[in-house]
Write a structure and sequence with these properties.
The chain has one domain: Metallo-dependent phosphatases (Purple Acid Phosphatase, chain A, domain 2), CATH 3.60.21. 50% of the residues lie in helices and 10% in strands. The protein is built from six helices and three strands; from the N terminus they run αβαβαβααα. A three-stranded parallel β-sheet has the order 1-2-3, covered by helices on one side. α1 crosses α3, α1 packs parallel to α6 (124-134) and α5 (112-119) crosses α6 (124-134). The longest helix has 16 residues, at 3-18. It is globular, with a radius of gyration of 15 Å. The two termini are 20 Å apart.
């Protein structure tokens, strides 16, 4: 995805998240279910498997992602792009909780910062700075 679109997605995600309270309350009724996921750690195939088994986020399919989206795996940035896109499309059905890997120092140690810089050589620093701002 071109850096311009990534930066735009990050900007819109940040704007949306700033409007939300620190604590999210997610409730269901008897006809709905919530899928709770955690620790994707850059494993895009795992995210796709979750969507394959449970369905894509939609007005009738809510998800809570409990952090640790990035680091360790090779597709952390792609996971953020997918999750942030679904968050903006379905703001009432997709909930993102920050984990300890959504931290700049942890990203430096466990590989996410390096991944971003390798994928976006020219705009990597700007994208990484914006991601840290979103986190």
């Amino acid at each position: 995805l071109h850096a311009r679109y990534v930066l735009n997605l990050l900007h819109e995600t940040r704007k949306h998240l700033k409007q939300l309270p620190n604590i999210s309350h997610v409730s269901t009724c008897y006809s709905e279910e919530v899928t709770v996921c955690g620790d994707l750690h850059g494993q895009l195939d795992d995210l796709f498997l979750i969507f394959y088994k449970n369905g894509l986020p939609s007005p009738s399919k809510s998800y809570v992602f409990n952090g640790d989206f990035v680091d360790r795996g090779k597709q952390s940035l792609e996971i953020l792009i997918v999750l942030f896109t679904f968050l903006l499309i379905y703001p009432n059905e997709v909930h993102l909780n920050r984990g300890n890997h959504e931290d700049h120092m942890v990203n430096l140690r466990y590989g996410f910062a390096k991944e971003v810089m390798q994928k976006y050589k020219v705009h990597g620093k700007k994208i990484l700075k914006m991601i840290q701002n979103v986190f």
